[in-house]
Specification:
Blueprint (H helix, E strand, L loop, with lengths): L12 E5 L4 H12 L3 E6 L4 H9 L4 E5 L7 H8 L5 E4 L14 H28 L4 E6 L12 H21 L4 E8 L8 H5 L1 H10 L12 H8 L10 E4 L7
Length: 250
């Protein structure tokens, strides 16, 4: 076996939430290119992601559901009874000044970005343990896991919680052969950052702080997600990997 063989995911099935576009779609395709079949979950159309997975020679099953709906967890697990990889990518953002931030927006963001990650991870881990398998849970954190941000109080709270949840789950699940880690994307070209990129001053300020000199793109996460999903990361637990163009170094 060579080092490259350790990155192969042949014979495995990966769940990716929020897989209809952006970061989720890119990570799903990367996992497919490494050999995994996919169970794709999202609110929107998954047709483009399915086509890309199938173009990579792998199979894709879709679950169209909203992770704000608590029934979504059981639907995903029913479609993926033998999955060994879970990528908790689905997330939403609501922007408003703190003094005007509504309870409804707070509850919705926490529900999708944090509570659903806990619930789906718990269900996935139970499935892996019951069949005496091994598994990988990969949570998607954020630069706002480390910083406060502006006008995104619920998103910051949820993404900060992802760091703690990743560590807590890793402590309990490592003895069962389940690795739990996270990826913290930097400022990426996605729908969530469209408002920032359109704001000339904010866009300029953000680029000035990124040593790489550019916004990230969804394919920039491909290497990190395949590494954390594969045997190459067998001894990696409770770690959050920034993929941020150097943002945190400033």
């Amino acid at each position: 076996m060579t080092i490259l063989d350790l990155f192969r995911l042949d014979g495995q099935t990966a769940i990716v939430t929020g897989a209809s576009r952006g970061l989720g779609a890119a990570m799903a395709v990367a996992l497919a290119e490494a050999g995994a079949d996919l169970v794709l979950a999202a609110r929107g159309s998954l047709s483009e992601t399915v086509a890309a997975v199938e173009a990579a020679g792998r199979r894709a099953v879709t679950v169209e559901c909203d992770l704000a709906d608590r029934a979504c967890t059981s639907r995903i697990m029913e479609a993926a009874p033998d999955a060994s990889i879970l990528v908790n990518n689905a997330g939403i953002i609501r922007r408003a000044d703190l003094l005007q931030y509504s309870d409804e927006d707070w509850d919705t963001v926490i529900e999708v970005n944090l509570r659903s990650v806990f619930a789906l991870s718990r269900a996935f881990a139970k499935s892996v343990v019951d069949r005496k398998g091994t598994g990988r849970i990969i949570n998607i954190a954020s630069m706002l896991s480390y910083q406060g941000g502006i006008r995104v109080v619920a998103y910051t709270a949820a993404k900060s919680g992802i760091l703690g949840l990743t560590r807590a789950m890793a402590n309990e699940l490592a003895p069962f052969g389940i690795n739990v880690n996270a990826i913290a994307p930097g400022y990426m070209v996605t729908d969530n950052t469209a408002a920032l990129r359109k704001d000339e001053q904010r866009n300029r300020d953000i680029l000035a702080r990124i040593p790489a000199g550019r916004w990230g793109t969804p394919p920039d996460l491909a290497g990190a997600v395949v590494f954390l999903a594969s045997r190459a990361s067998d001894y990696v637990h409770a770690t959050t990997v920034p993929v941020d163009g150097g943002w945190l170094s400033r």
